[in-house]
Amino acid sequence: MTKLFKYELRRLLVNKFFLGLLVIVALYSKHLLETVVILGVSNTAPFSGWSYGMFLAKILPILLIALLFFVSFLYSNQEQGMSTLRNATPINLSVLLLLRCSAMIIGFLLIAAIPIGFSLWFYANNFHFTNFGVFILPILITLLPSMLFILGLGIIAGRLHPTLLYALMPLMLLFSYLPMPRIIDLFGSNFFQDFPLTLPLGADGEVAFVVPVVVWIGKIVYSMTGIVLTILGLIHFTKSDY
What we know:
Blueprint (H helix, E strand, L loop, with lengths): L1 H12 L2 H20 L13 H24 L4 H5 L1 H5 L5 H35 L8 H25 L2 H13 L13 H6 L18 H23 L7
Helix pairs in contact: 1-6, 2-3, 2-6, 3-6, 3-7, 3-8, 7-8, 7-10
């Protein structure tokens, strides 16, 4: 089982497209940190939860494109051509699909670790700031719901037609620039940009990082919807799909 999981993970990560995405993510992270984050967002400090959340929101579309690329492996021509071989193996199909979803999630987390790791070095090196615990909440509310939702959406889209996955990729970039109400702001850029302007300054002269109920509701709905879509997509796989 472990060997099979390692194989699935290696299949996703060891390819030119993924390596290219790593380079793009690293370069874009550097650009954002040096041009957007270093100035602070909405009159907050560069190391505030608001500025860090905006950094994550802007890098998120590329991370989600990588996730959709991982999902596309389920529906590739090469994958369909291996159906006879895989049907002859004793492994349970449900276990195989679970391993593949796990590999996709791990792959997403690994590529997300690039901008996160680079940003922590940036803060420590430029601001001598190491209180990284304040970034946990922005990371969770930005990355987790979007990962779950796009994973489920991608699996459903791929089942309808594999080319829909490639249509979704540029839409990730487009939607990140559209003004969205907070409850459906998947990327969070509008929330991180606008909401701190409505809050009072604290005793330290900074705006406290708080997440309103409406945002929590939106993130929970996105997360649960993604889980349901993933389950619905996977339970419709049959031996003939492979």
